[in-house]
């Protein structure tokens, strides 16, 4: 909130060192009063480097000075009377967009400084979104695989984004919508259309891309029943976690802090970050898919490990001779039978079960089964994790004869 300061303390009448030194020889009570005035003067001087000129237009101050906050530098800025009453504010920093502003089609303004770092071009947005997806794949390839060929990212203005967001009834108490995803399926193939608001600073644009990519992962790997049961703030908290981890890898400390200041996940982002540091991303992915509870609990951090993985239903007898033959020859140990690619995703055939990176399932071994998770798939090998023990092992394709 902008406040008004009448130009009194900034005058040169308080600059005489000899008069101030003489005043400090007065009785103790008067000394305390004067020391208080000196401290107040010093605090006022800390508001700006130049007490004579406006922090935006550079003009000399009149008798009234406005003070406001720069939301980018988080420093107080002194404004002249004209700038203090200027109606057009920069969308990013909140300062008056007086000098060479950029006006966006949706009515927003950017000051000249912040326009340099804002993502305004569709081609630049596409390049950055691809970089984000590649970086997430590099960071988390052992745990998850993001959709790629079936995902499209578009740069839209605020009006269009809000309309998309409201069409599906999503007009809840979010202070500012930055991105939106629409996922559709025809029972055999799923597509994801991601819209991200234009004019975001590049770090925030990258974080928003990662957030929406996380939504796409949820749509493809979390059952519809679990998604319906999952609390909305937990769903958003998980997506923010993936974005926060990306910002952490890029050393974007300001963007990380900004994400933590946003309260729309109602504290779930903090719990997800704590859980990831304690238990790892793999356990969080398991909780997203099979967690017993619908949100993380601050009182019980270990609840992230409270999961109930579904039991694989054994197929009943069929008329297929092939099925009966394979039933008779179930390996008595885990064997990598093959590696294939389906719809852009790598699959490893472990005994009788196809698994993609990040997926878990019960694999038959002799007359029993074991719950395993596919960690990563290589050219001729696969890394698995035995869920019950946590032990990892690597299987290789049999050598060709």
**Helical segment count:** 13
SS content category: alpha+beta
Task: Find the count of extended strands (DSSP E, 2+ residues).
Answer: 17
Strand content: 15-25%
Principal-axis shape: elongated
Whole-angstrom Rg: 29 Å
Question: Which spans of ≥5 residues are poorly predicted at pLDDT below 50?
Answer: 8-26, 171-175, 314-328
Task: Bin the helical content.
Answer: 25-40%
Q: Within the largest sheet, what's the order of strands?
A: 14-15-16-17
Secondary-structure element series: EHHEEHEEHEHEHEEEHHHHHHHEEEEEEE
Main sheet properties: 4 strands, antiparallel
* Mean pLDDT score: 81
Distance between the termini: 76 Å
Count of individual domains: 3
Structural commentary:
By secondary structure, this protein is of the alpha+beta class. The protein has three domains: 3-116, no CATH class; 121-305, no CATH class; 321-396, no CATH class. Helix content is 36%, strand content 22%. The strands form six sheets. Strands 14-15-16-17 form a four-stranded antiparallel sheet, with no helix packed on it. The chain is elongated, with a radius of gyration of 29 Å. Mean pLDDT is 81; it is low at 8-26, 171-175 and 314-328.
């Amino acid at each position: 909130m902008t406040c008004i300061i009448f130009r009194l303390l900034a005058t040169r009448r308080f600059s005489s060192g000899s008069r101030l030194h003489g005043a400090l020889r007065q009785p103790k009570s008067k000394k305390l009063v004067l020391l208080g005035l000196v401290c107040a003067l010093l605090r006022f001087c800390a508001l700006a480097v130049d007490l004579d000129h406006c922090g935006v237009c550079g003009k000399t101050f009149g008798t009234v000075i406005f003070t406001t906050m720069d939301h980018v530098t988080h420093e107080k800025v002194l404004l002249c009377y004209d700038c203090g009453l200027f109606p057009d504010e920069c969308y990013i920093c909140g300062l008056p967009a007086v000098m060479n502003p950029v006006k966006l089609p949706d009515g927003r303004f950017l000051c000249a400084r912040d326009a340099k770092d804002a993502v305004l071009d569709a081609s630049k947005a596409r390049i950055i979104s691809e970089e984000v997806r590649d970086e997430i794949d590099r960071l988390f390839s052992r745990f998850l695989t993001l959709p790629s060929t079936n995902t499209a990212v578009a740069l839209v203005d605020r009006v269009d984004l809000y309309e998309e967001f409201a069409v599906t009834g999503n007009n809840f108490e979010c202070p500012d919508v930055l991105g939106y995803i629409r996922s559709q399926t025809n029972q055999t193939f799923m597509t994801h259309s991601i819209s991200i608001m234009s004019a975001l600073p590049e770090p925030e644009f990258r974080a928003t891309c990662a957030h929406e990519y996380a939504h796409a992962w949820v749509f493809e790997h979390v059952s519809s029943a679990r998604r319906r049961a999952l609390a909305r703030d937990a769903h958003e908290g998980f997506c923010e976690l993936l974005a926060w981890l990306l910002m952490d890898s890029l050393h974007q400390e300001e963007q990380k802090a900004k994400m933590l200041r946003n309260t729309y996940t109602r504290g779930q982002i903090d719990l997800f970050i704590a859980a990831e540091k304690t238990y790892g991303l793999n356990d969080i992915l398991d909780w997203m898919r099979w967690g017993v509870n619908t949100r993380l609990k601050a009182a019980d951090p270990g609840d992230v490990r409270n999961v109930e993985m579904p039991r694989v239903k054994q197929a009943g007898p069929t008329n297929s001779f092939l099925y009966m033959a394979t039933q008779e020859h179930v390996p008595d140990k885990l064997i990598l039978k093959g590696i294939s690619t389906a719809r852009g995703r790598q699959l490893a055939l472990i005994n009788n079960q196809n698994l993609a990176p990040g997926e878990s399932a019960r694999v038959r071994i002799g007359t029993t089964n074991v719950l395993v998770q596919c960690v990563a798939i290589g050219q001729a090998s696969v890394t698995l994790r035995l869920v019950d023990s946590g032990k990892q092992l690597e299987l290789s394709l049999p050598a060709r004869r």
